[in-house]
Amino acid sequence: MSSFKSPKDYEELIRVIHERYDEMSKTYQNISIYLTQNPNDVAVHSVNAIAAKCGIHASSFVRFAQSLGYKGFKELQALFQRRLATAAPGFEARRKALDEELQKRDKSELGFLRELVVQDIASLQDMLETIDTSSISNAAKIIDTANTVYLVGQLRSAPVVELLRYILTMLGKRCVLLDTSGGLATHMARTIQSTDALIAVSFRFYANEVVNIVEEIGQMNVPIIAITDSTLSPLAKTARVLFPVPEHDHAFSRSLAAPICLAQALAVAVAALKQTGEDTPRIPTVTAP
């Protein structure tokens, strides 16, 4: 049992987890990531159910809680339950509705589509509750005032930065995509100036080159906007604006619905800064007749 004084509320717990994260074992780091990514699920599920989702034995969750000064996992879980009671009063009803929908699962092609749609809706609702309005505003201002917007995202993050490059270019922003062609992404990143901005997108398991670029550029006083899956992501340390978009596991793959929606929201916010009047911000299109 640890002599560490246990955090008294959810906010203090998250702060302590961040402070101690680098010193934790790999198992405890994985537990920390799950707790910070899925606070609502932690509040309503048993430790056995949570452990099964993580692929980690329930006893490890108990020992993790004890290392933070709690008698057991239930004491730690109580902080998540108090947070849920005040921060997201509609979540419990939505969770039950989601569970009911998923219990209707069938293995037809339409059934696969239905399951993905239901889970994507839950992801979008969760993001709407967790994203800070000021973060979107700050990110839009950084993008709008940057001389050049650099974008980096690899593997399954690539579609998010490709979409951002397209929309921001249509808005008249000078954009440079740091892709992997020719192995020049890292070298191109070193041409970034402090008057530019970098948008980095990466999810577990984080692309090494993206992480290295963010760490190097973060030392150059360049504003970085990061879209990732956790406040414990390696992108979080140097980000000027951080968008942690928790991911929900799917049977086949993890969905990009939430980060794609966030990318579109950022583009609309930039469009609003560029346009005057009360009309809804619009993005120019090259396909109009």
Key words describing this protein structure:
13 helices; globular
Q: How much is the radius of gyration in Å?
A: 21 Å
Poorly predicted regions are: none
Content of β-strand: 5-15%
Give the tally of β-strands. Answer: 5
Number of continuous helical runs: 13
The helix fraction, in percent, is 40-55%
Characterize the largest beta sheet: strand count, sense, and whether it forms a barrel.
5 strands, parallel
Q: What does the overall shape look like?
A: globular
Strand order of the largest sheet: 2-1-3-4-5
Order of helices and strands: HHHHHHHHHEHEHEHEEH
Distance between the termini: 70 Å
Note down, in words, how this protein is organized.
With 289 residues, this protein is α/β, with parallel strands linked by helices. Helices cover 54% and strands 8% of the residues. The protein has 13 helices and five strands. It has a five-stranded parallel sheet with strand order 2-1-3-4-5, with helices on both faces. Helix 5 packs across helix 6 and helix 10 (158-170) runs parallel beside helix 13 (257-274). The chain is globular and about 55 Å long. The mean pLDDT is 86.
Detail the topology: elements first, then pairings.
Elements: H1 10-20, H2 26-37, H3 39-44, H4 47-54, H5 58-67, H6 73-87, H7 91-103, H8 109-130, H9 133-145, E1 149-153, H10 158-170, E2 175-177, H11 185-189, E3 197-201, H12 208-218, E4 224-228, E5 241-244, H13 257-274
Parallel strand pairs: 1-2, 1-3, 3-4, 4-5
